[in-house]
C-alpha cells in the first residue's frame, strides 16, 4: 500500500487533538510552563517518531504481534494487554468527549446514552466489517472531505477582528516558567499517530523514508501554537479559565457573513464528529486486532471465533456505556488528562521494545553474513 496512508495516520492524530483535551490541558497550564513544555514536547515527540519509524522499517508488513513473537511468553501477553488498554482507552476518551459535545451543542434534549448508542453502533459495524486496508481508505476519504472545512475555520480564526495580539504576547511572557509534566505529555501526543503502526504496519509493503517526515515537527508545532494561542487571543489570559472545550467556545464566535452556514460552530462540530469517529475506529481497530490474536480468534468462518469477535466489541461498548453513566464531563476530562500522562511512558516502553528487537535482528543478520 502507498505510504501516503501512513501520513494520514499522523494527520488524523494532529487534527483530532485540536478538538480534544490538548487545548484544555495547555491552557490550564498557561501560567505554569505550558510554552516551554510545548517546546520540550515537540523535541520528545520528534525523537520518538523518527526512532520508531527507523526501527519499524526492519519489520516490513509485520504487526507488533509478529515483532515480539520471540520474547518470553509472559512478557508478550502482559505487553500486548498493556497496548490493548492504551489504545482502547484512547478511543474511549475520544468517544466520550465528542459525544458530550455533540449532545450539548447540536441536540441538548437528546439523552446522552442515546447518542452514545448511535455512535457505538456505527463504530462497531465499521470495526466488524472493515479490514485494515479498508479503514485506511475510509480515513483518506474523510480527510479529503473535511480538511477544506478545517482550513476555512483556521482562516476565520486568524483573520478575526477580535483576535487580540496583546493577549497572545502576554502568554509569551510565560515562556521561562518551569515545565509541566502534564503539558509535556499533552504536547508530545500530537505526534503519536505513528504508533498506530503497531497494527497498521501490515498494510505497508515498502519502507518508510525518514527524510519524508521533515514536515511533521513543523505541522505539529503549528497545531500546538494554534490550539493554544487562538483561544487566548479571543478570550484573554484570564477569560479562558472556565472553558471546558476552548475551541468549541472559540469557534462559536466565528461567523461567515455571506456563507451558506453563518455560524462556524455548526460546521466545526460536524467536521469533528466525522474526524472523531474515524479516530476512534483506528484506535479500537488496533486494540481489537491485538486482543483477537491473544484470544486466538483468526477465522470468522468458525462459529466460536465469530462469537468471540462480537463479544470483544460488546465488551468495548459496555465499558463505554458504564463509564458514561457514572462519570460527569469534568471527570471524563480528568480521566483523559491522566491517560495522556500515562501514555507517554507507555510509548517510550513501546519504542524501547521495538528498538531492542530491531537491533537484535540486525545483529543476527550480520552474524549470518559473516
TrEMBL record:
Keyword Transmembrane helix: yes
InterPro entries (UniProt xref): Spore_GerAB (IPR004761)
GO biological process, one term: spore germination
GO-annotated cellular components: membrane
Entry keywords, A to Z: Membrane, Transmembrane, Transmembrane helix
Source superkingdom: Bacteria
Parts forming coiled coils: none
TM segment ranges: 7-27, 33-53, 74-98, 110-130, 142-163, 183-201, 213-237, 264-286, 307-327, 339-358
Keyword Membrane part of the UniProt annotation: yes
Protein name: GerAB/ArcD/ProY family transporter
Organism the protein comes from: Radiobacillus deserti
Amino acid at each position: 500500500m502507498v505510504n501516503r496512508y501512513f501520513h494520514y495516520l499522523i494527520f488524523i492524530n494532529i487534527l483530532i487533538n485540536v478538538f480534544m483535551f490538548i487545548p484544555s490541558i495547555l491552557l490550564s497550564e498557561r501560567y505554569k510552563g505550558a510554552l516551554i513544555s510545548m517546546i520540550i514536547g515537540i523535541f520528545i515527540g520528534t525523537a520518538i517518531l523518527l526512532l520508531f519509524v527507523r526501527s519499524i522499517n526492519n519489520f516490513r508488513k509485520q504487526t507488533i504481534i509478529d515483532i515480539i513473537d520471540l520474547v518470553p511468553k509472559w512478557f508478550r501477553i502482559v505487553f500486548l494487554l498493556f497496548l490493548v488498554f492504551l489504545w482502547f482507552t484512547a478511543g474511549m476518551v475520544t468517544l466520550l468527549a465528542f459525544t458530550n459535545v455533540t449532545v450539548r451543542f447540536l441536540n441538548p434534549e437528546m439523552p446522552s446514552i442515546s447518542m452514545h448508542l448511535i455512535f457505538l453502533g456505527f463504530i462497531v459495524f465499521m470495526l466488524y466489517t472493515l479490514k485494515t486496508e479498508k479503514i485506511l481508505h475510509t480515513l483518506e476519504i474523510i480527510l479529503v472531505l473535511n480538511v477544506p472545512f478545517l482550513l476555512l475555520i483556521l482562516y476565520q480564526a486568524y483573520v478575526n477582528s477580535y483576535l487580540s495580539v496583546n493577549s497572545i504576547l502576554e502568554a509569551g511572557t510565560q515562556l521561562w516558567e518551569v515545565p509541566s509534566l502534564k503539558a509535556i505529555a499533552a504536547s508530545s501526543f500530537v505526534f503519536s499517530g505513528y504508533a498506530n503502526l503497531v497494527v497498521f504496519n501490515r498494510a505497508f509493503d515498502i519502507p518508510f523514508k525518514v527524510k519524508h517526515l521533515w514536515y511533521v515537527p513543523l505541522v505539529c508545532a503549528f497545531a500546538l501554537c494554534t490550539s493554544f494561542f487562538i483561544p487566548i487571543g479571543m478570550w484573554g489570559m484570564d477569560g479562558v479559565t472556565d472553558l471546558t472545550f476552548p475551541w468549541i467556545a472559540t469557534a462559536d464566535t466565528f461567523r461567515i457573513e455571506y456563507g451558506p452556514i453563518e455560524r462556524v460552530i455548526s460546521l466545526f462540530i460536524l467536521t469533528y464528529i466525522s474526524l472523531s469517529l474515524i479516530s476512534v475506529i483506528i484506535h479500537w481497530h488496533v486494540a481489537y486486532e491485538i486482543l483477537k490474536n491473544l484470544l486466538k480468534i483468526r477465522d470468522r468462518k468458525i462459529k466460536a471465533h465469530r462469537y468471540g469477535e462480537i463479544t470483544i466489541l460488546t465488551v468495548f461498548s459496555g465499558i463505554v456505556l458504564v463509564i458514561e453513566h457514572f462519570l460527569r464531563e469534568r471527570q471524563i476530562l480528568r480521566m483523559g488528562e491522566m491517560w495522556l500522562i500515562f501514555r507517554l511512558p507507555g510509548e517510550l516502553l513501546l519504542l524501547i521494545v521495538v528498538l531492542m528487537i530491531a537491533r537484535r535482528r540486525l545483529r543476527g543478520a550480520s552474524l549470518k553474513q559473516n
